[in-house]
Design brief:
Strand content: 5-15%
Length: 645
Amino acid sequence: MNVDGFGRELAGCTGGKPFAILLLLLFACFVAPQTMMAQEPGSRRSASDLFDTIYDTAIGDSDRIHAYKTLVENPISPPDTKSPRATLESFLVIMRTATDLWVETRDQFFSNSNFFLTSKEKDQLELVSALLGKAALTFDMSAVPAASRERASVEIVLQMQEILDRVYLPALEEVPGVPAGLTQDNREPPERWTIPGTNLTIALQEDGPRAGEYLFTQGTVDRIPSDYDVIKALPIASDRGEDLYSYYIYTPGNLVAPQWYQYILSGPPWLQKTFSGQTVWQWAGMALLLLFSLIGIMLFARWNARRAVPVDPTLRQIRHVINPALLIVIANAFQFLCEEQINITGGLLVLLTTVTSVTIWTAAAWFTYQALQLIYLATSRSSAFNKASLDVSLIRTAFRVVSFLVAIIVLGYGATRIGIPIYGVVAGLGVGGLAIALAAQPTLENFIGGMILYADRIIRVGEFCQFEDMSGTVEEIGIRSTRIRALDRTLIIVSNADLAKRKIINYSQRDVFLFRHKIGLRYETESQVLRAIIADIRNLLEQSESVLEEPLRVRLIEYADFSILIDVYANIASTDLNAFLEVQEDLLISIRSIVENHGAGFAFPSSTVYLSRDQIPEPITDQAVSGHKEPGETSYSASGNSSKT
């Protein structure tokens, strides 16, 4: 007795060899008399009868027999789709061979009561999957997202098989076009042909990679699920006696249910009830998988948050890489278990595949960015990395930009995998890029400012610079801002756009250091001594190996308020500040020794105060005044009036 995965007896399943019918027909081609009668025009047949008729009409035609044999024995050969009849015949032949082998392998597995499939059974199921995939090539599946196309195509061909097993098909002579296996026909097939009594249409593909082939149209693919839901209650006209599509979607595993499914069958009957295309146990299993996945992510996030942050930047970056990698693993495991074990199908499968694909490809873009940053850190820390000849900050910025662009490319490719056309992705990136450019104008301005700093070589990491009202050592030139360490060890962050507009004095790019000092001698210094001091200082500078020959001058320049000023001007051949300060220190001490050896001294601000006693002037008398009177003028009276005579 043969039983299906539901534990039901199969009345019409013989369990014969997968190619027994084909071999018998090949034998009949050479030894049996050709006594069969052609179908009468206008007669109607079931899919099972039509399958038998296909082989009956091929008897005596070795080319057609070879073509049918190739269809079922060579999994990688394409179906014959040069006419509506060839497409329909290819589908029927492939599906009949696939379903017979499928049922035989399933019944053999359950009869042996093995917990795992044998290698032979695995090979047979792989052949069944390949044949189902080949049958799907007779459909235009271009509108189905690539991420779910493989599983969706299996459901489509199984539903189509069940529909054809419940309707009556026209005689082969009434199907337009050349039969499968023939290459010449005087009849010109129409561009479209619809199976009578249905809306299932086979049409000529006018463009695309399969132009010139007759395929079941996209509209047919879209309506097959609804047509199956309407017609599945009708009796099956074939000799299988069971609905293989129902067995496929309501049982776990891939094509053959595992042995543990018997425990579900022996459980409460309500576990087998269907809701929105899935059984109750499938809904429960998917919910548990989702719960365990979320718990795993939360536990890892909590454990990761409690760990000490590594001091080594490479180890910190490794932690950043692990996070998206773990998310990819969990999402793939969740999708695999839902598809291959719980066997979620239909619209829920499309939704689940879309959500997991979005998660996986988003995490993949995140992982790509972090992985490229890790490569940069590992490369920059390598002994082979020549830090003297490469601008480390520029390379770091370039890695960030490249990492971001590669992550965007990965994200765009993932968008095409979930069904978004490549043109839509490119257009979306263009529009999105314009929107981002408008919204992030300050950020782009800072980025361009950073590129200007790099291109002009104005500043580099490690250089000491003065930026108008601030100064410090450049620590990092990023995409948006530059970090400067001030002399008091405070960190100054300036946007690149603002920094590019500032007046910048780069002390680290000096080729020499200027040695210039004004020496003030006392006014008591004699002229001969002054000349000797100037000559000795000039000789000191000329004999020093650190002082350049030009320019070099030591001159008396001014008699100042409290000193005689000597200007000492020279360049020190050094680019290191510490080395310059050491040379300057030696020169200043030597100049002091010269001044002291000549008995002179340095002037300092002073002033001379002269003290003297002034004589008090005599009082003015009338006698003194009378000598200055004009004729006729009288003396002033006590009241202040004067008179003339």
